[in-house]
C-alpha cells in the first residue's frame, strides 16, 4: 500500500537503552508544533524526497523550526525519506535544493542529514544510532 502523510500526532516509545518517547507531528500540524518545542530533546525532520513540489514549503518549515528559540541547541536530524521510490531526489540534489550548506552554517544547533525509506527500512539503523548517540545517556 502507498504510504499516507501523517495527520495528527502519534506517540511511540523507543529503548535506546533508556526509554525515549517519539512524538510524530504531521506537516499539516505545523501551526501547533511550537507548543511541543519546550519538551523536545532532539528533532527528526522528515522530508518527502519523492515530491519536488513540496521542497519549498518543507524548507520554510525547517527554517521556522531551526529559528525557534526553545530549539536553539536541540540536535536536528533531517531525514530525506522515500528513497525507495523511483522518482526520489538524491541526497546531493536535496541538499542543493534546500541550500543545506547555508542552513547548516547559519543554524545554532547541530544538523545531521540521512536518506531513509520508512517502507523498506533503509537508513533506519543510522537513525537509531543517531538517536542513541544524541539521547543515549
TrEMBL record:
One of its GO terms (molecular function) is GTPase activity. This is ARL16 protein. The keyword Membrane does not apply. The lineage of its organism: Eukaryota, Metazoa, Chordata, Craniata, Vertebrata. It comes from the Eukaryota. Pfam families: Arf. The keyword Nucleotide-binding applies. InterPro entries: P-loop_NTPase (IPR027417), Small_GTPase_ARF/SAR (IPR006689).
Amino acid at each position: 500500500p502507498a504510504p499516507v502523510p501523517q495527520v495528527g500526532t502519534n506517540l511511540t516509545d523507543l529503548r535506546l537503552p533508556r526509554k525515549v518517547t517519539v512524538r510524530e507531528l504531521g506537516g499539516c500540524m505545523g501551526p501547533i508544533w511550537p507548543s511541543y518545542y519546550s519538551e523536545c530533546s532532539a528533532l527528526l525532520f522528515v522530508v518527502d524526497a519523492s515530491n519536488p513540489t513540496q521542497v519549498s514549503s518543507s524548507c520554510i518549515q525547517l527554517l521556522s523550526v531551526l529559528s525557534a528559540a526553545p530549539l536553539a541547541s536541540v540536535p536536528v536530524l533531517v531525514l530525506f525519506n522515500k528513497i525507495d521510490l523511483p522518482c526520489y531526489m538524491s541526497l546531493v540534489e536535496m541538499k542543493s535544493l534546500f541550500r543545506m550548506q547555508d542552513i547548516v552554517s547559519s543554524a545554532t544547533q547541530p544538523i545531521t542529514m540521512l536518506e531513509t525509506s520508512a517502507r523498506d527500512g533503509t537508513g533506519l539503523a543510522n537513525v537509531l544510532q543517531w538517536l542513541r548517540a544524541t539521547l543515549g545517556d
